[in-house]
Amino acid sequence: MSPTRLFMRFMRSLTAGIALAGVLALAGCDAQRLDSMLDTLRQAFKGFFDSVKPDVLLLKGLTPGVSTLEQVRAQMGKPETERVFDDGSRRLEYPRGPQGLKTWMVDIGPNGRLVAITQALTAQNFAKVRVGMSQDEVRALLGKPGQVAAYRLKQETVWSWKWLEGGVTPEAYFNVHFGPDGRVSTTSRSDVMRGH
To answer: Signal sequence: where (predicted)?
Structure first.
């Protein structure tokens, strides 16, 4: 989504939020209820800003071994997915939009401190996808796909991630094909079509 469209979307949301707050105030809502609604509105705006914040701001001030889980959440917002492991460690997933080119995986140790922040959409990570892996295993490795397509005649579901491939065509899709058993049958690459 272009910066202009994001700004226009934000302005529409802001205008609607202000109008809602004004209507509720005029309607005689008690102060506690109005504060609760305004807090919900503030959280929604923060979630929106976290989703469009440039990576340099998203990751600003986070230091492995120092930053806490709470600091990560305050800086990066609510993760798309949070996985908790038997030893108490966690992995938080932050995809950068449905067609974003990055997905940040944030690893938190059992002590509640940041261990590492890694970009999941890389050739090295794609090479780890193997025939027979489950959808959950692929999701844990690559994060939320930007697109999901079901092909009923082929009895196949394809998950796709747009990523910075580099080369002549800087952006491409990495595709993971799942058979009817929900396991990886193959992977493929496809071009990003422009102007459609």
So the answer is: 1-21
Q: For the domain 54-119, what is the CATH code? A: 3.30.1450.10
Strands (E), the chain: 81-84, 90-95, 103-108, 114-119, 147-151, 156-164, 171-178, 184-191
What is this structure's pTM?
A: 0.73
Residue whose C-alpha is closest to residue 175's, from 165, 167, 186: 186
| CATH-assigned architecture of domain 123-191 | 2-Layer Sandwich (3.30)
Q: Residues 12-66: pLDDT tens digits? A: 666 666 666 666 565 555 667 767 777 777 777 666 666 667 788 889 999 999 9
Task: Show me where the domains of the chain are located.
Answer: 1-52, 54-119, 123-191
Q: Residue 96's closest CA among 6, 169, 4?
A: 6
CA distance 12 to 14: 5
How far is it, in rounded angstroms, from Cα 180 to Cα 68?
41
Cα–Cα distance, 138 to 175 (Å, whole number): 11
pLDDT in tens, 67-120: 999 999 999 999 999 999 999 999 999 998 767 799 999 999 999 999 999 999
Residue at token pair 């469009």: 52
